[in-house]
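Students often ask what a holo structure prediction actually looks like on paper. The answer is less mysterious than it sounds. You provide the chain, you provide the ligand, and the output is a string of discrete structure tokens encoding the 3D arrangement of the protein together with SN-glycerol-3-phosphate.
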Amino acid sequence: MKFFIDTANLAQIKEAQDLGVLDGVTTNPSLMAKEGISGQANVIEHYKTICEIVDGDVSAEVIATDFEGMVKEGEALAALHPQIVVKIPMIKDGIKAIKYFSDKGIKTNCTLIFSSGQALLAAKAGATYVSPFIGRLDDISTDGLRLIEDIRLIFDNYTYDTQILAASVRHTMHLLQCAEIGADVMTGPLSVILGLLKHPLTDSGLAQFLADHAKSNA
Ligand code: G3P
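The corresponding structure tokens follow.
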């Protein structure tokens, strides 16, 4: 399973990269705004900086919602760095744009996926990744993990190369459940990855080992 971090915060991206388990980064306009990054030139510089920090794919979202606009923006984003993946919303022109980029060998991430039908359509258009937002479905009393299961089943019935990128992952159990289902990638905050470290028996066991070592070496 690939681990992506869902943030535009450089310190968190560096921390995840230093841990040695980071496979990529996803961003969106809200995450950029949260870091106070505004203006096209600053946004572009920020993407370049992120690409310099991480080794894997970096999703950069288009703002345009029409085909021509998405193509223009996406081509400019893709030209920034080989690691850039053009992130495109699940709308009609978005599907056309995904097909356009797929034909040109440019990687895409279809975002704002909330149904298996949307995922199937994006896969048929040649998306590299589909991003089902599981936390936002849970927020409205709908089972986000069930969506991951449904998409996994559909993709496994055929030969789509499209990867399931579980997004809007909110906690460590989401990550583990996505791993059990077989999501190819998960993206979430750093805390979701760090949560995997935690177990009280590890802490107490280590404290005991160190205490015993100190006693026998006193
Ligand atoms: O990757 C999608 C993500 O940024 C949305 O997460 O927590 O705002 O639903 P959230």
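Residues 1 and 153 are 17 Å apart (CA to CA).
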